[in-house]
């Protein structure tokens, strides 16, 4: 079977490159598209879903914002199983920071110029959003288009979704982007920050071998 994979916000697939999947499956990475001006989330999801061939059974896997995206795609093209890494199964699991963005609508009014590479890099370190001890931390984030970054932050803060039983959730217990206290994950990666697919790849790979049989 094919496993379609979407990485995190602004990330290419280096953060997932060490993960090992069952050899009998075909791995297909779906790149992020740059949103069109004033494009709705629904329209964007439809464009991303076009890359999934649902003429045969398939799996979906998403990391971080990619976890949100694969759940939305699953509504249009149902998968045999959906696995999310460092992501949430419903809007009820949002962090206080993301929820505050939803309530205040601050992400929508922030200027696009704020989402440049220099600002994003400084903010990431300040918030310890990822893993400052990892020397490759900024090599994982390649999609740096300011409009895409601002649009994505808006959509994450606005996201509404009801949890479904088909989704397998894997979280790190030190993830501050999506804190584990807000969720009841199927698997917990001990000592895992938001970058656990890269730093704890052996543990994650063992789980994927079990789930994608």
Automatic annotation (TrEMBL):
Name under which the protein is recorded: Alpha/beta hydrolase
Record keywords: Hydrolase
- Single GO MF annotation: hydrolase activity
């Amino acid at each position: 079977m094919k496993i379609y994979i979407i990485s995190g916000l602004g990330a290419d697939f280096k953060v997932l490159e060490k993960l090992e999947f069952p050899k009998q499956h075909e791995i297909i990475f779906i790149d992020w598209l740059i949103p069109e001006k004033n494009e709705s989330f629904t329209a964007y999801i439809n464009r991303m879903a076009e890359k999934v061939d649902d003429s045969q059974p398939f799996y979906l896997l998403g990391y971080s914002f990619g976890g949100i995206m694969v759940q939305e795609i699953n509504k249009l093209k149902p998968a045999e199983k959906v696995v999310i890494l460092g992501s949430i199964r419903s809007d009820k699991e949002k962090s206080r920071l993301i929820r505050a963005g939803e309530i205040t609508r601050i992400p929508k009014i922030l200027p696009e110029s704020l989402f440049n590479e220099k600002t994003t890099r400084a903010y990431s370190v300040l918030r310890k959003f990822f893993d400052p001890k990892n020397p490759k931390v900024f090599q994982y984030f390649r999609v740096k288009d300011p409009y895409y970054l601002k649009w994505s932050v808006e959509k994450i803060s606005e996201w509404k979704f009801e949890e479904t039983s088909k989704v397998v959730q894997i979280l790190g217990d030190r993830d501050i982007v999506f804190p584990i206290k807000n969720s009841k994950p199927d698997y917990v990666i001990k000592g895992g920050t938001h970058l656990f697919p890269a730093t704890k790849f052996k543990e994650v790979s063992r789980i994927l071998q079990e789930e994608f049989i």
